[in-house]
Amino acid sequence: MEINGYGTQVNNNNNLNVQTGNEGLSMQDFLNLLVSQITNQDPMNPMENTEFISQMAQFSSLQAMTDLTQIAIEGQATSLIGKSVVVADYNSKGELIIDEGIVQRVIIYGGQTKLYVNDKEYFYSNVMEIKQIEEDPVDPEDPVDPEDPVDPEDPEIDETQE
Asked: How confident is the model at residue 9 (pLDDT cuts 50, 70, 90)?
């Protein structure tokens, strides 16, 4: 048995490919396993129909939870657009690089969710901290009314003209 560069084990005896990456089992894989169970069962002691139904229900609920988790992650990532985050990643030398900035955009493609911070791409799993964007505080000594941006102490304003 050999392992190729994609993390797939190949059994040369019967050409069976077993995925060991992030792919997991699909519905087609489950159906193939079910057919194998049926064809290789003991004819004197066959499996009950309820066992097949139970296995299918368990697999369907697992698939639904996986899909729901992925949707939740995508929703959380898109809600970060415009927020300040701290992200970390390793550079080519293996050193941990921490970056902080505002999430510019989120890309969801091929089951992966990526964020762009300071024009750099990071996986959603690289987010370490989410911060509130600090707004410019209002100086209590500054008498300028935010509703009326005219400074009352400005000598260029003539109050006699209306």
From this structure: very low
**What confidence tens digit (pLDDT) does each residue in 63-107 have?**
889 889 989 999 999 999 999 999 999 989 989 989 999 999 999
3-state secondary structure the chain: CEECCCCEEEECCCCEEEECCCCCCCHHHHHHHHHHHHHCCCCCCCCCHHHHHHHHHHHHHHHHHHHHHHHHHHHHHHCCCCCEEEEEEECCCCCEEEEEEEEEEEEEECCEEEEEECCEEEEHHHEEEEECCCCCCCCCCCCCCCCCCCCCCCCCCCCCCC
Give the chain's mean pLDDT. Answer: 75
Cα-trace Rg, the chain: 29
